[in-house]
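Study this:
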Amino acid sequence: MSVLVIGAANLDIKGRLFNSPVVNSSNSAAIKTSMGGVARNIAENLARLGVAVTLLTAVGDDYAGEDILDTADEVGVDVSRALIIEDATTGTYLAALDPGGDMFVALDDVRVLHHITPDYLYLNRDAFRECDMVTLDLNLTDATLHTAVKLAHEYHKPICIDPTSTDIAHRLFPLLPKVDIITPNLDEAEVLLHCANLPIPDDPVQCARHLAALGVATVVITQAERGACYATDNESGQFPALRGDIVDTTGAGDALTAAIIFGVLQGMAVSEALQLGLRAAALTLRSTYTVAPELSLDRLYGME
């Protein structure tokens, strides 16, 4: 079982505010750095679940890029094909979290990913041929996204795409009929429904059904503390979130996506894979790291 993951690998710098934010002023916070980037996060989560993972990404020729690749390699992610770009800055995610651990505002610099070109993907087409699933984030350029989807289809590989953020979720819309799994949060799902000129129902399950009707085989919509719902062409459902103290919400959706990919490749029903994903998300919410270091299959099945 192997997955090819393509997209961002960032340095995450996160500050959790001690009090309500005050604009135009310095705010007291607890600041922590960790490895991040949607694609990198998904890749690390998969590796911790025992999946063989290849990550296609680009970093700068700097200390952050070196640390990102070294850390990924240590947990079992194959980064041998990653690009190291001279005179470029490694992707950086700078976030201010509110006192409850939710994102208040974030800045994302992924300019280095413009070096992930269609030509680079074609040079690595054997990675498409040899994997069992292709997973993408939307930080890639349009040309690179379409090339990745084309290569995955050429080798008959299922595709999972994480919409990444509300700012860029609309870029997924033209690809929906070609995608097997999408994992938007509720805001990202509403962006996609708006692109389709569809009404936005109050019920998230109905949102998932509408998106599935646009051609996606499996839609999973995350809803923070309300859990997540799913829809396919013949079933749908809703599951609650696991209870627990929230330390940091960053990376929880990526953990959920990785666990769903793992479950689907293991032959689980979507409903079972989603419940595993909610456990992975809950574990991540309790960690100060973007990927919970203690993540493992045994740990997930042992959670209450």
Remarks:
- The longest strand covers residues 10-17.
